[in-house]
Amino acid sequence: MSSNDTVIDTTTNGSGSGSGGSRSVTVIGLGPMGQAMAAALLDRGYDVTLWNRTASRADALVARGARLAPSVREALAANELVLLSLTDYAAMYDLLGPAEGALVGRVLVNLSSDTPEEARRAARWASDRGAVQLTGGITVPPSGIGKPESSTFYSGPRDAFDRHRRALEVVTGTTDYRGEDPGLAALLYQIGMTMFWTSMLSYWQATALARANGLTASDILGHAVDTANSLPGFFTFYADRIDAGNHDGDVDRLAMGTASVEHVLHTHADAGVDTALPAAVAGLFRRGMDAGGATESFSGLVELMKKAD
Ligand code: NDP
């Protein structure tokens, strides 16, 4: 049975149909994210049932009117709409596996981070147990939960998404539905995180270099912000050219870029700062040179990455 074939049990307490959607939601996982989600639902007058491995994390929410279920099974039984906010998908199997008989008719909205393949595997696992999985990719920290200006990627069965859209908007702001493939929201999330982690690491690297030269993080803040703000212009310039396979060296050439990243590497080495990150960058540029790309744009590295093992 595919996830699209799964029949939803709309006789369950709090299950919704039509434009209203559910006003009763189960939240499983109460790290900073799950707590913020449950709080946003309580703020909007929803009935909230909770479960968490460490029960004490529910205390403040229970004091506000949420109900702590005595077991995962009862948390699942309480509502059709079940939000999962866990460290990864492995935690979902740990938690829901022993209670899988209670999954029939549930819509599991998995807002945990993991790979697109894990999201697809979990959707099959849910479907095999009579449930439906929607995948969510959250792009904001807990402070952004419940804010209309925040936006979250969703993918999975469209009918389940439409039925619960209103509650999902309460939790994660704007809902950006991208399609039926349950891996898609996870992919978009991981694309964002690819940029986030490497960008933040590059900021830590630049700050370490500044500090090794007697400058503080505050001293370089404006320069760091200006540099980061210049990047969208580069993304926009290169996007169409990359899609067209155009890596012409009319604006920049890889040979110039390679010389530049070598200067960066040596500046860090001279200052006694860790060189792992600049050395990795220089290594990629050198591979592009070895592949014959010296006179092409450094955007050609995207083709090199595609071919990497
Ligand atoms: P945490 O890791 O702090 O909390 C995770 C939750 O998962 C806790 O409730 C924890 O239970 C539970 N958990 C983990 N492993 C298991 C297990 N094996 N069995 C049972 N329960 C388990 O994460 P956050 O709340 O910060 O984030 C939740 C998800 O949201 C993550 O996937 C994260 O990547 C994603 N995310 C987080 C953002 C953030 O800024 N925090 C931003 C965007 C996405 P217990 O309380 O008992 O430890």
Strand-helix topology:
Layout: E1 24-28, H1 32-43, E2 47-51, H2 59-63, E3 67-68, H3 72-78, E4 81-84, H4 89-96, E5 107-110, H5 116-128, E6 132-138, E7 151-155, H6 158-172, E8 174-177, H7 182-212, H8 221-243, H9 254-271, H10 276-290, H11 301-307
Parallel strand pairs: 1-2, 1-4, 2-3, 4-5, 5-6, 7-8
Antiparallel strand pairs: 6-7
The protein binds NADPH dihydro-nicotinamide-adenine-dinucleotide phosphate.
Structure characterization notes:
The protein has eleven helices and eight strands. It has 309 residues and is an alpha/beta fold. The chain has two domains: 6-186, Rossmann fold (3-Layer(aba) Sandwich); 213-305, Orthogonal Bundle (N-(1-d-carboxylethyl)-l-norvaline Dehydrogenase, domain 2), CATH 1.10.1040.10. Helix 5 runs antiparallel to helix 7. The longest helix has 31 residues, at 182-212. 36% of the residues are buried. The chain binds NADPH dihydro-nicotinamide-adenine-dinucleotide phosphate. Residues 29-34, 52-54, 57, 85-87, 91, 94-95, 112-113, 138, 141-142 line the site of NADPH dihydro-nicotinamide-adenine-dinucleotide phosphate.
Find the CATH topology of the largest domain: Rossmann fold
Average pLDDT number: 92
| Ligand identities | NADPH dihydro-nicotinamide-adenine-dinucleotide phosphate
Q: Which architecture of the largest domain does the CATH hierarchy give at level 2?
A: 3-Layer(aba) Sandwich
Q: Total strand count, please?
A: 8
- Helix percentage range: 40-55%
- What can be said about the biggest beta sheet? 8 strands, mixed
Structural class: alpha/beta
Indicate the low-confidence ranges by residue numbers. Answer: 1-19
Number of H/I helices: 11
> What is the element string, with H for helices and E for strands?
EHEHEHEHEHEEHEHHHHH
Radius of gyration: 24 Å
Superfamily (CATH H level) name of the largest domain: NAD(P)-binding Rossmann-like Domain
What shape does the CA trace take?
A: elongated
Q: Please give the order of strands in the largest beta sheet.
A: 3-2-1-4-5-6-7-8
Cα end-to-end separation: 35 Å
CATH top level of the largest domain? Alpha Beta
